[in-house]
C-alpha cells in the first residue's frame, strides 16, 4: 500500500458506560474496540461516522467532538483514524456482520476485556481528563 487508509470511529457514552464492539474480522478479530471503519471515496467524515456506526451497532448517531487522532502502522498497512464522540439519536442496539457483539461497558469492566491497545489508551486518557483531541501512534512489527 502506498498511502494511508482513512477511517473513523464513534465513541458513544450512556452515562458512565461506553459502547464497544467485538470485532468479527482481522486485523483485530475477537478484540473489543469502538465502532467504526474506513471512509469511502466521496464520503464526508460525518457521513462515514453515521454509516459505520449504524452498520456495526444498529444505532443512529450524530458526531459531535473530535476525541482523538490515531495512527496505526502494522505489517503492510497504515491507518489514520479520526475518533469522534457521538450522540446517540435513535436505532436499536444489535451487532452486524462486522461485529460479533455490541455492548455498553463501565470503566471498571474494561479491565476484563481484550481491548485493542489504542482503544484502551484513548479511553484511559479521556477518563483521566486529557485535553482533546489527542494523538495516539501504534507501531507494530
What does this structure look like?
- Strands 1, 2, 3, 4, 5, 6, 7 and 8 form an eight-stranded mixed sheet that branches.
- Helices cover 17% and strands 48% of the residues.
- The mean pLDDT is 93.
- The longest helix is centred in the middle third of the chain and has 13 residues, at 45-57.
- The chain has a single domain, classed as Nucleoside Triphosphate Pyrophosphohydrolase.
- A hairpin with an 8-residue loop joins strand 2 and strand 3.
- It has 141 residues and is an alpha+beta fold.
Please sum up the structure shown.
The chain has helices spanning 45-57, 117-127; strands at residues 5-14, 17-23, 32-33, 36-38, 59-74, 77-91, 99-106, 134-139. The chain has 141 residues and is of the alpha+beta class.
Topology:
Elements: E1 5-14, E2 17-23, E3 32-33, E4 36-38, H1 45-57, E5 59-74, E6 77-91, E7 99-106, H2 117-127, E8 134-139
Parallel strand pairs: 1-6, 5-8
Antiparallel strand pairs: 1-2, 1-4, 2-3, 2-7, 5-6
Amino acid at each position: 500500500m502506498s498511502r494511508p487508509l482513512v477511517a473513523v470511529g464513534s465513541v458513544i457514552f450512556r452515562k458512565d458506560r461506553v459502547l464497544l464492539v467485538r470485532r468479527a474480522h482481522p486485523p483485530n478479530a475477537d478484540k473489543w474496540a469502538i465502532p467504526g471503519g474506513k471512509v469511502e471515496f466521496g464520503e464526508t467524515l460525518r457521513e462515514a461516522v453515521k454509516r459505520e456506526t449504524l452498520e456495526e451497532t444498529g444505532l443512529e448517531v450524530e458526531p459531535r467532538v473530535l476525541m482523538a487522532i490515531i495512527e496505526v502502522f502494522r505489517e503492510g498497512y497504515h491507518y489514520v483514524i479520526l475518533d469522534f464522540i457521538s450522540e446517540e439519536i435513535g436505532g436499536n442496539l444489535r451487532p452486524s456482520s462486522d461485529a460479533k457483539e455490541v455492548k455498553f461497558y463501565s470503566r471498571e469492566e474494561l479491565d476484563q476485556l481484550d481491548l485493542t491497545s489504542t482503544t484502551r489508551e484513548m479511553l484511559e486518557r479521556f477518563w483521566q481528563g486529557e485535553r482533546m483531541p489527542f494523538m495516539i501512534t501504534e507501531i507494530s512489527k
